[in-house]
Design brief:
The protein is an all-alpha fold. About 75% of the residues lie in helices and about 0% in strands. It contains twelve helices and no strands. Helix 5 runs parallel beside helix 7. The mean pLDDT is about 90.
């Protein structure tokens, strides 16, 4: 807000606003899930390490196993989900404190992620995988349905990233589930 007041020429444009959102999208997506955990009265220390494990799983499968990007991403999502299921099992059924269970998962996920990547950066992924980090216009253009120039939709798709749109959809759905469903009420009542 201070930056917008002092430098409206820099902070006041659409591109910069959405670039700031893009810079924090991964943290925002993790925060959506953490709302449920914290609302339940628990803590998850492994969330960053599980994110790294999921990313390195997808990278490993695409680079070393020549797996299609959608399959690698689905498998990586499944790995992250399994880590969450294990955390949930250890803290609810095995009666371990969530702090201890998620700390153990933190080190496990961190080690597996480093092992998958071999301790180095993996790059040069297929173009369709790289679309997820691009502006939404590039994705629409790739599919051959880019909006016409000189329209508000054109300007918006040139400014917003695909990741930011994913974050927005996840946050809206998670908010509705938490505020308007019985499951959401149970999460908040437990915490």
């Amino acid at each position: 807000l201070v930056g917008f007041i002092l430098r409206p020429d820099f902070w006041g444009n659409l591109d910069n606003s959405f670039n700031l959102l893009l810079a924090f999208t991964e943290i925002g997506i993790m925060a959506v899930g953490m709302v449920y955990v914290i609302g339940n009265g628990d803590i998850d220390l492994s969330v960053g390490a599980v994110l790294a494990l999921s990313g390195s799983t997808a990278a490993f499968l695409m680079k070393k196993a020549d797996m299609a990007p959608i399959m690698a991403a689905t498998f990586a999502f499944s790995v992250g989900t399994m880590a969450g299921v294990i955390n949930g099992f250890l803290s609810t059924k095995a009666k371990l404190p969530a702090f201890v269970a998620t700390l153990g998962m933190f080190y496990t996920a961190r080690g597996l992620g480093a092992w998958f990547s071999g301790g180095r950066q993996l790059n040069q992924f297929p173009p369709e995988f790289n679309l997820i980090g691009r502006k939404f216009y590039v994705v629409l253009d790739y599919w051959g349905i880019a909006p016409a120039p000189d329209s508000i939709f054109y300007a918006l798709t040139r400014a917003v990233s695909t990741q930011t749109m994913i974050l927005a959809v996840l946050a809206i759905v998670a908010g509705i589930v938490l505020a308007k469903t019985a499951a959401g009420y149970m999460v908040m009542a437990t915490g």
